[in-house]
Amino acid sequence: MEPRSVRPYIVALGLLWIVPAVLVLVLHLTLPDYNASGQCTGLGFGCTPTPADTVLFLGYLAALPLFLLGMVACLVIAVVRARRDRRDAGRDEVETTDSRDAGDPGR
What we know:
The chain is mainly α and 107 residues long.
């Protein structure tokens, strides 16, 4: 039996967790931490968050759905691999039985 590759899991979680986290970090560090219009910063009372803070806020909102989507993606990968392994095991069993029957001189 071959060792299972973790590459599909790394790709899925990299796209769903690491890329968004790096994107939020880079945008938070590169976007301005002031409002260009001179409007007050913050939430409520007519103020708006700065672009850098808005990215953090959107990242917080996206964290739970991305976490759950990553877990679902891992589950789907595991189910597909299990079905494929079961199908391959059945195919190997049929080939072994066929080769035994073909080589049996008593039949």
